[in-house]
Structure formats: C-alpha cells, structure tokens
C-alpha cells in the first residue's frame, strides 16, 4: 500500500504527536493511518503502508488496545483481523486524556497526598509542602473539571469550546469593572 503524500504527511505527524501523547512514534503512525482510512486495515496492510515489521504492528496494536483506541473487526470468509479506530475523534481525545490521567496525574496525586500527610520538620520542608499543596489543588481541580467534561456529549463539548473565548472576555470585563470600582 502506497500512501498519498497528504496522507503520509498526516501519518508521520501522528507519529510525532504520539510521543507527546504517551506512546511511541510507530504506534502514533499506526493510529494516524487507522484514523485516516475509511475502511479497517489488516496488520499486513499496516505493515506495508508504514514499512514496519508484522511484529512491530502486533506490539503497536496491543498498545493501542491497552489505550482502548482501536477495535478489531472481522470480514466474512476472511480469517484476518482488521483494525479501526474505536469511536469518534472526540471519544479518542477523551480516552487519551483519561489514560494520561491514570498514568501521570493519578500517581502524582498519590505521591503528593502521602507527602502532605507528614508534618514538615523545618522551614524548607514547610515551603516545599506549601508548593506541593498548590500543585495538589491544581491537579485535583483539573481532574474534577476533566471528569465533568467527559460526561458531556461531543456536541456539548464543541459548544463549550466555542464559548471559551467569550467566557475569558467576560471574566476580563468583570475584572476590569472591579478594578475601576464599578462593581
């Protein structure tokens, strides 16, 4: 399978983004390929398109399955497994955030909670604990907010994101009015 230049560009970019999302470049390329193709692809097709080994495809599929980003499909009278994205682009974004929360934010919150349970023994520890408390509170707020967002439909999320710029303008206006003593 030969990729058109626009598709290849997108797939290569997904590889670069994959490393930022928390998985390796090849897995990112595989996911980009699956996203951009309308039909499910077999491991052989993925291997040929990306010029990678079948073993590498197999490991990449397992990684994508652990992130719940791909689904397996079968075609009648064909023993091969075919892979496609598991859900919409919005669902993918939510899953990536959820997995990153589990892998990065949750362990950090656990460490911070443990550290905040002990009393500081000196001024440096007291300062460090104050900073850790602020980080903890920020992560808790972000986690709570993200959980609320995950309950929204893609349409509601899209509306909320479009409101984003308007909300910041309202907050800035409120702050300006407060600073000028008009509220």
Automatic annotation (TrEMBL):
Keywords: DNA-binding, Transcription, Transcription regulation
Keyword Transcription: yes
Family annotation (CDD domains): HTH_ARSR (cd00090)
Superkingdom assignment: Bacteria
Keyword Transmembrane among UniProt keywords: no
HTH marR-type domain boundaries: 25-80
Family matches, as SUPFAM superfamilies: Winged helix' DNA-binding domain
InterPro entries linked to this entry: ArsR-like_HTH, HTH-GbsR_regulator, HTH_MarR-typ, MJ1563, WH-like_DNA-bd_sf, WH_DNA-bd_sf
Stated family: Belongs to the GbsR family.
Protein's UniProt name: HTH-type transcriptional regulator
Phylogenetic classification of the source organism: Bacteria, Pseudomonadati, Pseudomonadota, Gammaproteobacteria, Alteromonadales
């Amino acid at each position: 399978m030969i990729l058109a230049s626009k598709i290849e560009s997108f797939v290569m970019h997904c590889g670069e983004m994959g490393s930022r999302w928390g998985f390796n470049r090849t897995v990112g390329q595989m996911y980009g390929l699956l996203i951009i193709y309308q039909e499910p692809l077999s491991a052989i097709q993925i291997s040929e398109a990306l010029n990678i080994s079948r073993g590498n495809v197999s490991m990449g599929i397992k990684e994508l399955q652990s992130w719940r980003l791909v689904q397996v499909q079968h075609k009648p009278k064909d023993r091969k497994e075919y892979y496609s994205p598991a859900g919409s682009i919005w669902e993918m974004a939510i899953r990536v955030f959820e997995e990153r929360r589990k892998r990065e934010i949750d362990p950090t919150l656990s460490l911070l909670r443990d550290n905040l349970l002990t009393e500081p023994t000196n001024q440096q520890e007291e300062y460090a604990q104050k900073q850790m408390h602020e980080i903890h509170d920020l992560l808790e707020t972000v986690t709570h907010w993200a959980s609320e967002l995950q309950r929204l439909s893609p349409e509601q999320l899209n509306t909320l994101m479009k409101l984003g710029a308007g909300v910041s303008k309202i907050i800035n206006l409120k702050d300006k009015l407060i600073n000028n003593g008009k509220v």
